[in-house]
Amino acid sequence: MNEALTEARLITRGLRTLHERPPAGLAASINEALGLGDHYVELPGPIGPLFVAFGARGISMIERGGDPGSFEEQFRADFGRPVRRAAKTPAHIERAIESRVWGRQARRGPVPLDLERLPDFERQVLLKTLEIPRGEVRPYAWVAAEIGRPLAVRAVGNALARNPVPFVVPCHRVVRSDGRIGQYGAGGPEAKRAVLATEGLDTDELWRLPAAGVRFVGSDTTHIFCYPSCRNARRITPEHRVPFRSVEQTRRAGYRPCRSCRPVDAPGRAA
Question: How many domains does the chain divide into?
Answer without folding.
Answer: 3
